[in-house]
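tool=predict chain=A
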Amino acid sequence: MMKNYHFNLLLLTSLAGISLGAQAARQQVSTLAELCKAVQESGQTIVMKPGNYELTDLPKDARKIDCSGSNNTIDLTDVYVKVPVGATRGGYIYITGNNNTFKGGVFEDTYPSGLKQVTDFSSYNQDRSTLAKGLRGSEVLGVLGNDNTVIGTKLTVRGSFPYGYGSIYGIGRDNVFGLDKRCGIVVKGESNTIDGCEVQQRAFGHGIYIQSPADNTTVKNCLVEGRMRPSAELYDEKEEYDLPKRSDYKLPRDGKNLPIPIDVMLPLSEDGIRVYTHGGSVTVENCTVKKMRGGIRCYLASKATVTNSKAVDCGHTNFNMPKGGKIIGSSGNFSYAPLSDFRLAKSNQEIELTIIPSPHAVGPHNLADVQGNNHTIVFHRTDGPIDTDVRPIVVTGKGSTIRNETEYPILLESSASGNTIVSFGPVTDKGKNNKVSQIK
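tool=predict ok
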């Protein structure tokens, strides 16, 4: 009996130790300095006191939240962090450890004057010291470790040069007037998840992008939203220091010097969800991208599946996929760019897209440019009146099966051959050996 008593006492003591250990692992912080220190340790639940904070509360040379610890839950529910543009020259949230959950938090880049929306792009771009001040191309939030989850975080991204002209003056070394981007979220580790996040992109840069050595990335339940601007407005900028005036209202790239178009909408940011070369595989679920340069652009991924997602009002394309890519139960429009441009003619895609009518479409683009070979594609449409702007679905490749349940016409170019087309809308066949039938 005494032996059992000692055993039970030892067991209770051990359990108490575990309980105390679990309590000790929970850490409450109430300043950004405390948060920065806590996230360097591992195996904790770190809860920040709800409230308003400012990145400038941190020393000028240490304005970065570096989550270098692992196996942490970092809870920033009801935490708002103001980030004055120019307060830091680099990104200010990084998750470099592994197996962390970064939860909540609203981070907003702010201008000194309280300006929320740039409308005078001429004046804005003259004030690089306080307004048009980017992050040297960096992102606000970087996920560099593995097996991390960022959930329910909101970013409002402001401050870049130039802003208001999209990418017409170059996006890399070929930029004409200098370039200072500011992006939202980058993923560079393996098996990371971005869940329920929102990026309001008000600077030139990507919303969410994925780069080497990333792999097995999931982006779900997210919203990325940018802004568009009519290209004709650039002709109203007539001061000698205005960028359109300095470029003689031409596109000074590629040696062509073509006039700035007057009939398109310019996306003021880069892509909504973008995968770069060697960015690995990606899954996109239940996401929405609006008014970015490209919507969901996965064409350089090693593998990609997009499910139940929407991309609308983007400036260059709303969707594109890699070889063997899949789009399931998703939708988009063609207001300012093709629904999909099948970038680089990647083949063997399985596509199911619902077309959202775009009666106010502007610009010379097609509804979709079906490049590449051996696709299986189904086009649905949303309910509502027949669209009067019947731009074509243009097919240039071989061996695809396309079912078009919409009124939009299909044009098979001379290079199109061996395709099977079943269409409600009219079909023009300029190719060879295509099999065409109509849906009655």
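The chain has two domains: 27-315, 326-440. Residues 326-440 form one domain.
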